[in-house]
CRP-like cAMP-binding protein (Marinobacter persicus), 252 residues
Amino acid sequence: MAMTQAVASKYTKPVLVAVNKTLSDDDGLGAMRSHPMFRTIRPEHVDHLVHQSRFLRLGHHQLLYRQDMPAHHFFFVISGRLRLYRLDSSGVDRTLDSIAPGDCFAEVMIYAEPARYACYAEALKSSEVLMIPIRAYRELLGRYPEYAQAALNHYAQRAVTRFHELEIMTVQNARDRVIRYLIDLLPDGEGQCDQGGEVELPLPKCLVASRLAMQPETFSRILADLKASGLVRVNRSRLFISDPRRLIEIGQ
């Protein structure tokens, strides 16, 4: 089975291929079962949902869906990493988020009317995702209303996270936006401030800059300043934050 995405020639991506494969716990089904969207669903019902889904393999920079395309599926990431982005009125893409293994995305489309994807989704490297039919999930919630509570809890947590991200983006000082972003990458965020920690940027530096609404040169300059101050050590995409508490203090 093959799918092609019709996009403007400037954004044309390779063909997306759906691979016929039975998903096992080793392939990511175990992680899917523990995700908040599926945690309370009985195993046989998860299996039925997976049976109606498709296992997709994407290559580097392959497009999964495009902005404003009718949405018939949401997705669970098994491996790799994807980027969500929108195009502004001038045609420049703005990074919204990066999606890692164990994450669901586009799940808000389950309740959207009309259901259209709000952004583009592309693979940043070779990735595998499960394409879950929205109709099948809605039918499951309709048949077993007790499952809807887990979905609502997940949406509530997502809303809290989005408000926090919006708070970061409203900070006018570019350096403070970078600091708050780096602190959030620590395993416990601001909770881990008594000892140093290593983090990995989930996106290339130019896309992190886009995510933080700044030019790549600005992001690189701020990292260089933090490095010169002894607050971070930088090794390509990996950063070691030597004193998180001090970093938080100068970012307030």
User: Anything to note?
Assistant: The longest strand covers residues 73-79. Residues 148-169 form the longest helix (22 residues).
